[in-house]
Amino acid sequence: MNQKWFKDRYFYKTMITIALPITLQNLISSSLNMVDTVIIGRLGESKIAAVGLANQYFFLLNLILFGINSGSSIFIAQFWGKGDTKHIRKVLGIALITGGIVSIIFTIGAFVAPQFILSLFTNDSIVIELGSEYLKVISLSYFITSISFAYGFASRSIGQAKLPLIVSGISLGINTFLNYALIYGLFRMPKMGIRGSALGTLIARIVEVILLLSIVYRENGVLAGKLKEMLTPTKEFVFKYFNTTLPVILNESFWSLGMTMYSAAYARISTGAVAAVQISNTIQNLFMVVFFGLGNACAVMIGNKIGANEKVTAIKYANKFSIIGPLLGIVTGGIVIIISPYILKLFKISSEVYSDAYKILIVMAIFMGIKVFNILLVVGILRSGGDTKFSMFLEIGSVWLIGVPLAFLGGLVWHLPVYIVVALVSLEEIIKTLIGIPRLISKKWVRNVVEHM
User: What whole-number distance in Å separates Cα of residue 170 and Cα of residue 253?
Assistant: First the structure.
């Protein structure tokens, strides 16, 4: 690495301009999610487990929406580099329709059969009953969330990351206030327990989408498309869209389903194990926000360059991100090990859950550098380059051939402690890295998907 590698001011300025708002948004979200977990945690471990498992269902929807809009972002970023506003709006329209249909299906499932859904994760009748109350209410926010996702991802893909930050900051502030007030019946509001948490989130989502759409259409920018512009793509356009995007949707769907299988394995160990994993994930996500922001910046910057036919620059950017990310991940892992005991003291949990959560966090910290590389590789580099089929096989294969079997063997067959099972599951990150690095070096991932559209 020569001095020019460090002196590329345009690269770092662009990276920070895109990554910082996304990081701040994710930091606000993760911080308030941790506050929500602390608030609910004071009601007891069963309620933490109930909300955690109910949110696994939303986690599945969340990642399908992430897949839909990540796939759309490939096109939007490259069309933006090409300077093609017309087709950006067509891609946004497809994302809105696809995300809306999927979210409605999930809403119907959660509202009609919440107990059945939760029984897939645990056999604890108390957790199922509590989680069902929460799931029926929170499911009403799913369609609204799909709209926010589409406009938020599209905004970032054209380098306008501040808008989702501002809107999400307001929404999440409202969410936390209402959750606290409705759970405990403060400020003359009804005392609703965990149903209050779900209702608070629903109200916050409604405020978020109203604010987002109001700002987009008031400013009449790139994303302020009319229905006719967004909902009338040609068959050829739709085919090319799904040819690239469908592997991303399948990737996120099967990956998220794999994550729910992990949760099912942890739930079979004990309710305390679920609570420990839920708390650990909440804390880990607080530290991972920088890397999700970095991954989004990586995808936008590389996608813009490929769309502008600057492939050499795109490859240079990929190499820089693949070194910067893991180095920051290793440093962050060390910080997690040092300060996690102090964060865990915020939770009202038993000494056993505290001990398991601390050990899980150490495992997560050890693997953080590798995990960050994989995030940047899959979400930032391979997808933005249009290499969606390879990234799909890489992620699905590592989760379902390595992670899921080890989760169930460790938890149900070998009866290992939950933190050891988490360590076994994390081995899939190593396999993913070993397979992914040769693909990165080969440069076969660089594809201009909008060149002939």
Answer: 29
| Residue 109 confidence (pLDDT) | 94
Q: What are phi and psi of 128, to 5 degrees?
A: -65, -45
Structure tokens at 159: 């380098």
Task: Please measure the distance between the N-terminal and C-terminal CA atoms of the chain and give it in whole angstroms.
Answer: 37
* Residue appearing with tokens 């991932």: 445
Give the helix/strand (H/E) hosting 3: helix 3-6
- The string of DSSP codes covering 275-299 is HHHHHHHHHHHHHHHHHHHHHHHHH
pLDDT, tens only, 354-402: 999 999 999 999 999 999 999 999 989 999 998 999 999 999 999 999 9
Both tokens of 386, joined, read 């249009």
Place of tokens 């356009």: 237
Give 286: exposed, middle or buried? Use CB within 10 Å, 0-12, 13-18, 19+: middle
Determine contact, residues 241/93, Cβ cutoff 8 Å.
no
Residue with tokens 């708002």: 21
Choice among 38-42, 71-75, 251-255, 296-300 with the minimum mean pLDDT: 38-42
- Looking at residue 8, the DSSP 8-state letter turns out to be -
Q: Output b/e per residue, 214-245; b: 16+ Cβ within 10 A.
A: ebbeeeeebbebeeebbeebeeebeebbeebb
Q: Which two tokens stand for residue 414?
A: 């070998």
pLDDT tens-digit profile of 406-444?
999 998 999 999 999 999 999 999 999 999 999 999 999
Rounded to 5°, angle at Cα 301 from 296 and 306: 125
- Please give the C-alpha separations between residue 398 and each of 162, 210, 427, in angstroms, as whole numbers: 34, 39, 9
Beta strands in 2-156 (DSSP E): none
Give pTM, 2 decimals: 0.78
Burial (CB < 10 A; 0-12, 13-18, 19+), residue 184, is middle
CA distance 68 to 101: 12
What would the pLDDT profile of 252-270 be if each residue is shown by its tens digit?
Answer: 888 878 988 898 898 888 8
